[in-house]
Amino acid sequence: TATAIAASEDAVETARRHLVQPWPFAGSVGAEARALIGEGDGIYITDGDGKRLIDGPAGMWCVNVGHRRKELAEVMYDQAMALSYNTPWYTMNAPSAELAERIAGHAPGDLSHVFFTTGGSSAVETALRFMQFYNNVRGRPEKKLILSRGGAYHGSTYLSASLNGRPRDRDWMDGADELIVKLSSPNPFRRPAGMSVGDFADFLVDEFAETVARIGAGRIGAFVGEPVQASGGVVIAPDGYLRRIREICRQNDILYVSDEVVTAFGRLGHVFASDDVFGIEPDMITFAKGVTSGYFPLGGVVISARLMEELRRSNHPDAMFGHGLTYTSHPVGCAVALRNLDLLEGGVLEHARQVAPYFQAKLKTLEELPLVGEVRGAGLMACVECVADRESNDPLLIDKDVGKRIDAHCHELGLLVRPLINMCVMSPPLVISTEQIDDMVAILREGI
Ligand code: PLP
Fold it and tell me: Among the four residues 78, 201, 367, 438, which has the most C-beta atoms within 10 Å?
């Protein structure tokens, strides 16, 4: 369009001189050029050389309704022309009120109140600061520890990042370790040798219960977990495990925070997966990404009405939740999210549920390849994990990053892959057709 900034070779050079990219290595920080993306359309993006690629990760698991949706562009324009911003400190706007109501309508149990943020990290941060405030107001200031798991990814702000449990994330980084208790990753593919999946579930639940007993429920404020660990490699925990953990939390008055930053808004075929897919009613759900299909940075936390009620009835009605972001309840972001929700409810969710079995079955055929140890997934998210050999299932690490090498081959062939060390994560826009799934898997097969 007339005012969009075109992709040019200059941009690559300018970035190398001035742009600090996320997740850089010290040896190239502030001096790195990455593949330049110029345009997007449906499930495709176009790189700086004009090459069309299938957007395998849908941006970062977020472009759920696909690129170049005119309806979303128009609503951004219209809302910005009507009201581009208002301070959320002592004013409010209609799009955020309407969106909160729509989201509450989809949330499980009594989750009925929404606090909007700028993305996923700030959503997780908000949920945890809310837990701290809740326990302070209720006269339990020592009940603040947070349970998190290996393989987790919850964000890049200080407290949310402290929860992260993926290899490499924390190697060179500090964190609020005194506030966090780490549990095992629920990854059945990496369970102890000789243990059945059923026994592995018992092991995880016992570890959880024993940790609560050892530390004391009176010191633990929250458990934070993704229903499916996304960036940890699309880890699907053993059947029933989440429900059992949820029950332990309930019995011990530990708030269960379900981090649905990736899984909400359609990735698993539903607006929220906690209840509809896994049968759990958390105390809080964090979301971001798919809420606007990535068209605008927005996230939030859905909070249980019970917690609100307890605060209102506490002995400290003057205690202030000292937390708010300049862009909390942004009118443009909320207006885009409302339109995006129309699209999801108007057919995209249904489509995602329909193609998901085909997507999973097609990708599963890659297990025929000798490099592939396991293909696993749910809904429209999957991980192809490469191993050195299938006996040991040791992660395959060629030139440090086999995922990056597969990505480079696939890029040549017309597919963008999300490389994660020895894993390739696939989470395309939810509007992908079965023919496009065939193309995607054929390229991935050749690339591997
Ligand atoms: N939580 C989960 C499960 C995520 O996958 C992510 C990002 O990938 C985040 C939180 C952080 O979200 P953001 O990058 O929008 O801050």
Answer: 201
